[in-house]
């Protein structure tokens, strides 16, 4: 299985983004997804600058696959305009995160991949999208390993299993919901159009707890994420046997090199090395067919 | 009470689409002036999969006959997302609806849309709100590939955005006019499965009743969802159903409605705008509500629509309408939701 670094879901400054990706080139990741997928008001990097970053990374590390990821919730004409620039870039492949992107890419007959916010829940959907150019998909986070097993078995029967790559969101706060409202701004009593770019203050999102101090959600602007980080390190052997091709790690401000190293070691079959990142509070329930917040072994 | 559907207006008038969770509710919708009712089957193929609700093979033919005899259309929602183990159930739902002669299917999943379009090309397909199409390029996709006739828009768009979209939409548009307010883009919300294991997409249930627990404690009345504390009420507060996005949670030292306060959507005041921008139909939320709710809301909206078309220039929402609607609203207050954006 390959390791991928998913698109950055949080809002970081221009410098922090540049520093982060430079440091990631030293890490054993095979695929890097770049681009703004959450909020069109986040412009630390505009489209040209993301493209430039993609080109720079590609130049420095030709073996690393670079993919551009698109916005997940498209409401305005200006957002469609940016989306078209992503889809027409002609250089890097695209991860579509909204059906508008799927439409633009399939119309151009360009191969593409889909992110976790595209609703692919069954084999008929997957096969149909394959016919329209889909070559890689990230399974929606709420689906289980068993469902994936069934989908991939059916896909095998129809001869498509080897033509489609399956990627699983394996580490990080999971994107759970999208809204027109900005909850980070709301937490600061600010209207969305005068949000003061408050998300910049929360490089790993804003923690929401129940009134009993139970970690529940993570606010990330218009996106609501899981309170705990998903962590499928212990599920890697099962993922491999089911037929997963790519293990996605979602960029976090803290301990990312340690996370990547632990997953890399596990994939290389290195035993007896303790993972060097905090794992006690993480969850993995979705993969095992349980509530996502559960921690199953 | 107005229950008119003047023939000369029928084509031009905005269509009123009302919810029916059972036969009595369907009768109320039909008798109080709905142009169409929408229903679901008694299983997880629809987004209101609640105990004691919905229709089966036995009573659906009667319900369809009742509606059709009175000139009301019947739409069937098959708008959740099947996984391989459930695929045959969704297929059967489409087959049954088609065989019984419903007027349209309301579908979200691409696989189900494809099956319906291939197998019953003559049967109208509406893209469900759960399909989460928020741009005309997304609508183009569904129109081109599955020939959808209409799309129900997610409740995340403002009126200005809906107007923009309507200008370039390849299909008829239906918008929510009244009912519980989803603040997340429908079809793309997993909050419920994160906490309970069941979500609208997978099971047709959000914050499912079987996971709910109420308890009177020394700190007040507590509502829990799969044991997670959703809210705690003081004696003088009205307790609401513990939907996850409407809970009171903590950020740092502050405890408040972190995502959304419990309110209902009501767009009766902007009916002229919705008509002017070319909206084809208004949808009333609430298949899980009582026949009395369907009766009340259908009656008020019928009056509003009739009054508007009788004299568009002088349309003024009546006080009595708001009073009647507020009585059946969640949280007893109504807002324009995303259509106006007071938080922006």
How many domains would you count in the coordinates of chain A? 1
Please count the helical segments of chain B: 12
The share of residues in extended strands of chain B comes to 15-25%
Largest sheet of chain A: 8 strands, parallel, barrel
Please count the beta strands of chain A (DSSP E, at least 2 residues each): 11
Summed over residues and divided by their number, the pLDDT of chain A gives a mean of 96
Category from helices, strands and their pairing of chain B: alpha/beta
- The oligomeric state is heterodimer
CATH topological fold name of chain A: TIM Barrel
The CATH class of chain A turns out to be: Alpha Beta
Largest sheet of chain B: 8 strands, parallel, barrel
The CATH superfamily title of the largest domain in chain B: Aldolase class I
List key phrases describing it.
heterodimer, A: 297 residues, alpha/beta, TIM Barrel, eight-stranded parallel barrel, 9 helices, 11 strands, B: 344 residues, eight-stranded parallel beta barrel, 16 strands, 22% strand
Describe this structure in words.
The complex is a heterodimer of chains A (297) and B (344). By secondary structure, chain A is α/β, with parallel strands linked by helices. Chain A has one domain: TIM Barrel, CATH 3.20.20. Chain A is 31% helix and 21% strand. Chain A is built from 9 helices and 11 strands. An 8-stranded parallel beta barrel of chain A has the order 1-2-3-4-5-6-7-11, surrounded by 4 helices. In chain A, strand 8 and strand 9 form a beta hairpin. In chain A, helix 3 packs across helix 4. The radius of gyration of chain A is 18 Å and the shape is globular. The mean pLDDT of chain A is 96. In chain B, the strands form 3 sheets. Chain B has an 8-stranded parallel β-barrel with strand order 1-2-3-4-5-6-7-15, surrounded by 6 helices. Chain B has a 3-stranded antiparallel beta sheet with strand order 9-10-11, with no helix packed on it. The radius of gyration of chain B is 20 Å and the shape is globular. With 344 residues, chain B is of the alpha/beta class. The longest helix of chain B is centred in the C-terminal third of the chain and has 20 residues. In chain B, helix 2 packs parallel to helix 3. Chain B is built from 12 helices and 16 strands. Chain B folds into 2 domains: 252 residues, TIM Barrel, CATH 3.20.20.70; 57 residues, no CATH class. At the A-B interface, helix 3, helix 4, helix 5, helix 6 and strand 7 of A face helix 5, helix 6, strand 8, helix 8 and strand 11 of B.
